[in-house]
Amino acid sequence: MSCVRSRSVRRVIYTASVVSTSPLMEDGSGFKDFIDETCWTPLNLSYAYSNPNLTEYVISKTLTEEQILSYGTNSDIGELEMVTLPLGVVGGDTFQSYTPLSVALFISSLTNGEFTYQALRFLKELVGKLPIVHIDDVCEAHIFCMEQPSIRGRFLCANSYVSSSEIADYYRKNYPEHHVKQEYLKGPKREIKWGTTKLIEKGFVYKYDTKMILDDCIKCAKKNGDLLTTKNN
């Protein structure tokens, strides 16, 4: 509403979360065959591996994004362009002096952190697999949306959709100096398709693939002293 009152802002870009885009069926019976911008997290379900804080986080993120987008169809506030960018799990390196929580989720199979691993399991069961994106691509996506002559709507921001077991297996194969427990290498084989190309169709180009995202998470964690070298059994 501050943007409306300013009479000078013509576009609002809201950084949203992928927790609002679950492909869960409304009755909780399973997942849809795809995940894209038409998916909204059902709020009437009990989520696996959840706790009150995580459940409230999902509800607040979903309701907030819905409310933000509703302003874009409200003629009473003028021609304000509303854009939401639900981000996947954000990986990559950082200038911060600590490892961001989202990066800690990526490497939870190496650190055995109970909180981060439970959060990863929760997210996997909420959205089927893990949409992931590099922090540099996240920044560029925001700039891209700022620079368009006109843009509005919802755009999922992630360029890979992988299982937690695939992440663990990549680290096991490429970083053998770190131990990966066998339990992290197991998980359901879900065939949910990543169905969104909306940002790409607008002309956006992702620069970081899955390998680059995962490698930069390792680089970040090592730099901040969060990874100890051990031997795989």
UniProtKB/TrEMBL annotation:
Domain of life: Eukaryota
InterPro entries the UniProt entry points to: NAD(P)-bd_dom_sf (IPR036291), NAD(P)_dehydrat-like (IPR050425)
Keywords: NADP, Oxidoreductase
Listed name of the protein: NAD-dependent epimerase/dehydratase domain-containing protein
Organism the protein comes from: Acer yangbiense
Statement: the UniProt record of this protein carries the keyword Oxidoreductase: yes
Alphabetized GO MF terms: oxidoreductase activity, acting on the CH-OH group of donors, NAD or NADP as acceptor
